[in-house]
Amino acid sequence: MGRPSKPLITRERAARAALGVIDVQGLDSLSLELVARRIGVKAPSLYYHFHDKTELLAEVARLMLVDIEPPAETPGDWEENVIKLCVAVRRSILQHPNAAPLLLQFFPRLLLLPSYDRALAEYPFPPEDQMMVVEGVEKLTFGSAFFEAAARARSIEPMPPFDPVKLPNLASAIRSNTLGDEEMFVETIRCFMTGARARLAAKDRAAASKPAEPAAPRRVRAAKN
Asked: pLDDT digits over 106-161, tens only?
């Protein structure tokens, strides 16, 4: 029997097989044996591509970001483009809620840097304030995805049951909310952007209204005789 024209195992194929196992059986149930069985090889064959299970899990985390579908951009609308990208990232994570903890453990941030650089080219903020916006948007996006993924992985509601009599304000807020999870996330990003613009505008106004410091008196050198 001749050798197969294509190798049975590649790093990506093994990582996708591992992600499939995690999706169905959970992160704690993952083993090299299950991954190998899914591909149709023996477990020791995986060590040709990965030193250990940890390296395989890191590749799964990388794969989850690689699989993000880049959204079509709206020319000239930086805020809408940022929101579209954030939604795409969140959706990609929530496709694999059981695997979401891997992004916390092996966060492959390097893959996101080109997207950050492209977004910064359109940001209407001065360079000294841009990283504040990047950090805020990133943390809101991943924080929202991780909380939602944790609830989905355990098949529970994001907000736990509570006594509305003891917590009437929270009960009223939840009862009055008309937004779905993704809609709430989008509105949260928009509020952050609005607050960032308002804060930076206030800084500009404060700087403009600050009285100019008087010029230092010029020292007159004595003439030499």
From this structure: 988 888 898 889 888 888 888 888 999 999 999 999 999 999 999 999 999 989 99
The burial class, CB within 10 Å (0-12 / 13-18 / 19+), for 109 is: exposed
186 and 83 Cβ atoms separated by less than 8 Å = yes
28 alpha carbon, distance to own chain's centre: 23
Over its C-alpha atoms, the chain yields an Rg (Å, rounded) of 26
Tokens of 205: 């106004």
| DSSP H or E stretch at residue 112 | none
Is the Cβ–Cβ distance between 150 and 96 less than 8 Å? no
Please name the residue ranges forming H helices in 106-210: 113-120, 127-153, 168-176, 181-209
Phi and psi, residue 67, nearest 5°:
-80, 0
Q: Which amino acid is at 122?
A: E
Domains and CATH numbers, the chain: 11-66 (1.10.10.60), 78-205 (1.10.357.10)
pTM for the complete prediction? Answer: 0.83
Backbone φ and ψ of 73, nearest 5°: -85, 150
